[in-house]
Write a structure and sequence with these properties.
The complex is a heterodimer. By secondary structure, chain A is an all-alpha fold. Chain A has one domain. Chain A has a two-stranded antiparallel ribbon with strand order 1-2. Chain B has three domains: 507 residues, no CATH class; 155 residues, no CATH class; 56 residues, no CATH class. Helix content of chain B is 77%, strand content 2%. Classes of the chains: A mainly alpha, B mainly alpha. Chains A and B meet through helix 2, helix 4 and helix 5 of A and helix 25, helix 29 and helix 30 of B.
Chain lengths: 140, 735
């Protein structure tokens, strides 16, 4: 029960760490691991079948691919525009576009890619391991 | 097929417009450039690779579906085959047009890799896999010598650009000779020259189109191409040229004799290829204008004839199911078009008049006769061998009595007829071929070259030698039945004591060594840890012993503010000690995470909150994963494992190894901390720049911006790890 209650707060903390990564401790990697921890807890508490029903975990690998692609795009689009790889916009010293108190930076977008990859990778791995048949026949 | 045709037309168009190329920066720090130019030599080989490619690809579209059917494999595999063939063609064109040795080397290895997969295409056969590996090892290991040669040249002359290099070599010297020798060994192995010839007959395990392409006009041609490309460099040393001469003559003799004795259709042709490239290498060894002209023309004439003959053997096997000369015969009636087409190609190889082959021998004899009488005799005898084995090949298949044959599809015959037609066309109208090889020979000899093959109805040396060849060849054909025993003895001798035997023996020895190390290293998890710790400990111990002790191992000051840090580290050490005493799995996992959490506290106290955060998260994740995996494992397995007593050598070995490696690490870290840290300007710079990059958490800014490329590579590794897990647990299916 506690595990179920914990999931939403855990994901919120992950999102906060991800977004605040540029001004405070934490980054996409940490956020991804936190979110994955929340989901791993669900596996431990309810077993694979229940989690697969409640959460879209079968898309985890796709999320990982999407994250990798997002990071690659952020890294190499500047090259197409004639810049260096990972040349982030806005440029140093330029005005940052705000959305409320959120600063829109391509570097954060890159971090979102890292987040998606890490979350997808860990959840997919957990799902793969949990799906291995064992001697007891059932799932934990 | 269409790809090859387009490529061929493109090459032809560029060549007729006077050549062309481009040149862009590649590795500025190495001064290596992506430079390509279609000069005379490049055009000759590129046109061969794409032109013969058109014929072979056409042939393959008919051959491969039947081949896959015979082997009981799905037709989709054909796509893989064609993709590899195209990759090979691209690599070959890149190789022959490259103007930079490093670029050339990249393509060189690319051809080797493509050929590995092509030779091993029938991967369900052990023989095919072994042959592919042999071809890869022989050409790959010798390619390392080639690379060393290139690097020696770079170290000496400061460039890898071929034109610049040839300009600077001048009169040569011992360094140039050394580099030339290394490069020549790589090239000769690629061209299957004795004594590194043994991989080629084995490579006949490949499907026929592969042999017809790689082993007549492309892969093996790459070796003599490189020798031609760098000929001015090789020519600076008489020694190298003489060595080429010896290798060429040796290959001619070995290949010719083995071909005369061979029974397996494709192997006969493979031996013939060894001998024929032996001619080319001999000519390059003779050098000069005449040698260059003969070499270039020879490659052209041989490639046309030989790929037609390879395709003939495939079509014959398709029609009769037979792979040996002794099992076929009398096919002229059943397959008249094939008989004519391959007859023309065989006539070309045997150098009969009215074929392009006559001119190849004319130029060859001319160059040999200019060098001296003994080479003229050698040339005539190996040409006679060629005449004999190729006559035996053709008459053995198409004349006499034989079994009935199935009809073969037209696309298996048409390429042979077209190439056979070209062989005759070259014998009648030689000028287009001559001009192509003239341009190539001028690059090789780095001087104007005259290639004027023509028929002369007089008793000049070349004609006399040709007549002598025919006579000796006919005599050999007639005497062949009585020579069978002797030829078989030669082949047996080669197998018993030849280089192939050495190769197999050394491979077996390497395997045994590897197995022995493997046994020591990975018997169980502890053995593996020991195998890492002991060599690392020895290295670290040497490092500690030879470093001066002065200034190291300073005992620093200690203030009360350090107390929490010390407490965290003591906690860490205690947890580690406790883990060694634990037997139950879950308890060990908890103990290990205790170590990790204590370290995380230490990070936090040292003022590295980002690292501490990641450490806490990873420890939690690992802990939960351990719990999850233990839940998956059968309980009695865990209980049984936990009850196994610590016995024997482990009681002593493990603590000793652990203590020694721990002490050495302590020494190294202590010594490292004793030295004053040099102020790091980049750290301050990062702090300063983070502000400009719109961030205030410098660690994140470094990860996402300053060192973003590192992060990119690391997350790619994370993804590869996921692929690995999926491969292990679900055969690579991610979803």
């Amino acid at each position: 029960m506690v595990a179920r209650l914990l999931l939403v707060p855990v994901l919120m903390v992950a999102a906060a760490i991800l977004i605040k990564g540029y001004v405070d401790v934490g980054d996409g990697f940490a956020a991804g691991v936190i979110a994955a921890l929340g989901i791993l807890l669900q596996y431990l508490a309810f077993g694979q079948a229940a989690v697969q029903q409640a959460l879209p975990v079968r898309h985890a690998a796709k999320l990982a691919v999407a994250g990798l692609l997002l990071s690659l795009v952020v890294a190499f689009v500047p090259v197409l525009a004639g810049g260096a790889p990972l040349q982030h916009a806005p440029a140093p010293g330029a005005e940052v576009v705000h959305l409320g108190s959120l600063e829109l930076l391509t570097a954060v977008l890159f971090d979102v890619g890292v987040f998606a990859l890490v979350l997808g990778m860990v959840v997919a791995t957990i799902d793969l391991i949990a799906g291995t048949p064992n001697e007891r026949g059932g799932q934990p | 097929m269409a790809t090859a045709a387009v490529a061929f037309v493109a090459m032809l168009a560029v060549w007729l417009r006077g050549g062309g190329g481009f040149d862009t920066a590649w590795l500025p720090s190495w001064d290596a450039r992506l430079a390509f130019r279609l000069d005379g030599l490049g055009a000759l080989y590129a046109l061969l690779a794409t032109g013969v490619g058109v014929a072979v690809f056409t042939y393959a579209t008919a051959y491969l579906p039947r081949h896959l059917e015979h082997e009981g494999r799905p037709q989709v595999e054909g796509r893989r085959f064609h993709a590899l063939m195209v990759l090979f063609m691209v690599a070959m064109v890149g190789l022959v047009t490259a103007q930079d040795l490093l670029v050339l080397f990249v393509f060189w290895d690319l051809t080797a890799i493509a050929s590995y997969f092509l030779i091993g295409f029938d991967r369900q056969h052990r023989e095919a896999r072994l042959s592919a590996l042999m071809a890869l090892l022989v050409t790959g290991v010798s390619a390392v010598l080639l690379l060393i040669g290139i690097l020696v040249l770079r170290a000496e002359f400061g460039t890898t650009s071929i034109p610049a290099l040839l300009g600077r070599v001048g009169r040569g010297g011992p360094v140039v000779t050394l580099a030339g020798a290394l490069i020549a060994v790589g090239a000769l192995a690629k061209s299957a020259q004795a004594p590194l010839h043994f991989w080629l007959p084995r490579a006949m395990a490949a499907p026929t189109p592969v042999s017809a392409y790689l082993h007549s006009a492309a892969m093996v041609a790459a070796g003599v191409f490189l020798l031609s490309r760098l000929h001015p460099l090789l020519a600076s040393s008489e020694l190298l040229l003489d060595a080429l001469l010896v290798v060429g003559l040796g290959s001619m003799a070995v290949g010719g004799l083995l071909a005369l004795g061979a029974d397996h259709l494709k192997r006969l042709l493979a031996y013939s290829t060894i001998a024929q490239y032996g001619y080319v290498v001999t000519m390059l060894g003779v050098g000069g204008a005449a040698g260059a002209a003969a070499a270039c023309f020879y490659v052209l004439a041989h490639a046309l004839a030989k790929s037609a003959l390879f395709m003939t053997s495939g079509a014959v096997t398709e029609a009769t199911g037979a792979k040996h000369l002794s099992e076929v015969g009398g096919l002229a009636r059943a397959l008249p078009a094939l008989a004519v087409g391959s007859g023309l190609a065989a006539a070309g190889l045997a150098a009969l008049p009215l074929t392009i082959g006559f001119f190849k021998d004319e130029l060859f004899f001319k160059a040999a006769a200019e060098r001296g009488p003994w080479l003229a005799v050698a040339a005539v005898s190996s040409a006679a061998l060629t005449f004999a084995y190729i006559t035996r090949f053709w008459t053995g298949i198409f004349l006499g009595h034989g079994r009935p044959a199935r009809p073969v599809p037209r696309r298996l015959v048409a390429p042979v007829v077209v190439l056979g037609g070209l062989v005759v066309a070259g014998g009648v109208l030689v000028e287009p071929f001559a001009s192509l090889s003239r341009a190539a020979a001028e690059v090789t000899a780095a001087a104007p070259v005259a290639v004027d093959p023509a028929y002369h109805l007089d008793l000049r040396a070349e004609n006399v030698m040709a007549l002598a060849t025919y006579a000796a060849g006919l005599a050999l054909v007639l005497a062949r039945p009585r020579l069978g025993g002797a030829l078989a003895a030669v082949a047996r001798l080669g197998q018993r004591a030849g280089p192939e035997h050495i190769y197999i023996a050394s491979l077996a020895a390497l395997n045994r060594l590897s197995n022995a190390i493997h046994d020591i290293e990975v018997r169980d998890l502890r053995a593996r840890v020991v195998a890492v710790l002991v060599p690392a400990g020895v290295l670290v111990g040497i490092g500690v012993a030879i470093t001066p002790f002065a200034g190291a191992y300073v005992v620093g000051s200690f203030s009360r503010l350090d107390l929490p840090l010390v407490a965290a580290l003591v906690g860490c050490a205690l947890a580690a000690l406790i883990v060694t005493r634990l037997r139950r799995h879950l308890a060990m996992a908890v103990g290990l995470s205790g170590v990790g959490f204590s370290l995380a506290v230490a990070y936090e106290l040292l003022g590295a909150p980002d690292v501490a955060l990641v450490a806490v998260l990873i420890e939690t994740l690992m802990m939960l994963l351990f719990v999850a995996v233990f839940a998956l494992l059968p309980r009695r397995v865990l209980q049984r494992e936990a009850a196994i007593p610590v016995t024997g050598s482990r009681r002593i070995r493990d603590p000793v190894v652990g203590v020694i490696s721990g002490v050495l690490v302590l020494l190294v870290v202590w010594a490292g901390f004793s030295r004053p840290t040099p102020p790091d300007p980049t750290a301050d710079k990062y702090l300063e720049l983070a502000e400009q990059a719109h961030g205030s958490d410098v660690v994140t800014v470094i990860l996402a911006d300053f060192r973003g490329l590192d992060t990119l590579v690391e997350i790619s590794v994370v993804f590869v790890a996921l692929l690995g897990v999926a491969t292990l647990l679900r055969r690579g299916k991610l979803w």
